[in-house]
Each structure stands twice: as C-alpha cells, then as structure tokens.
Amino acid sequence: MKLVVLDRDGVINKDSPDYIKSADEWHALAGSLEAIARLNAAGYKVAVATNQSGIGRGLFSFNDLLAMHTKMQQALSSLGGSIDAFFICPHHPDESCDCRKPAPGLFKEIRQRYHLSDEQEVVAVGDSLRDLQAAQATGFRPVLVKTGNGINTLTKLSADSQIPVYNDLADFVSHFLQPKT
Length: 181
Prior knowledge:
Elements: E1 3-6, H1 32-41, E2 45-51, H2 53-56, H3 62-77, E3 85-89, H4 105-113, E4 123-126, H5 129-137, E5 141-145, H6 150-154, E6 165-166, H7 169-176
Parallel strand pairs: 1-2, 1-4, 2-3, 4-5, 5-6
C-alpha cells in the first residue's frame, strides 16, 4: 500500500482564521492539486485527515463540507487525480474527542481502513504542530510544509528536530517522488 496522508487547510487549500465555511471560500494553494495528481500518477493513494471544528462550532454543516470536498475532487479529476478518503474530526475543541489532532484517532482510523501494519511507512504532511504530533503518535512519518501555519510551526520545532520541512506540497512531492539512490 502506497499512501500519503495530507492535512487540508494550509496544505491543500488556503486557510483562514475565520474558517473555510463554503465551497465558494475553498481555494486550492498554487500547485497543491497538481502535486496530488502527481502522487496518484506514481501509484499513491492520498487520504486527507482534517480537523473541521467549524462544524462543532455551528459555522457550517456537513453538507457545506461535502460541497467543499466535491469542489476539490472535481478540480483534481480534471488533473487526473483524486483523494481516496477524507477522515474528519467535526468536534468542537471542548468535546475532548480522540479524533481531534493532536490526538491520534484519525490516524488510527486510517491505519484500520487501509489495513496498515506498524512497519509500513506512511508519510503525513501538515502545517501545524498538532498534525505532526498526531502523525508521530501513530508511527506515521511527519513532514512539515511552510504554507498555512507552517512558518509559525517551524519556530516551535526543536533545533534537533528530524522532521523534514518543505516550502509547500508541490515541493514535498517533487522531492518525495525523486528516485531513491
């Protein structure tokens, strides 16, 4: 199983402190959809693991979220790409669920869905410390991109951090898909 897990807001699409609440507000970051299509073309499935507390906060509905993801899938389809599955935490931060990153619930669900062994290396790309922590907690290999909250997150990493850092998703995919020597 060749799988890459991506955070959504700040990695695939523009983020907003006011939340992305509709398909009209959803805009892909430059090169991100092409990067996903390149992963797909190289035989990788791509899954999205995303906190969407705007649902729990009453800012948008599951139908609004579905419309955003439909827009994303349609744009990807025109490039020959797709998201295989979306793993979503809709809870308000005060609900103390086990799926809201940095808790590992979404990544555990991904392990189960794809029947991944603990030995299988899966890369998880995020822009926030909570993305990296959730990935590490479940044995996924965390990768940081500088888009979204990435620059701020970079300042929170220790100087001896082994987490690779890339400018954006397209930069990560270019390096990731290079032949290994």
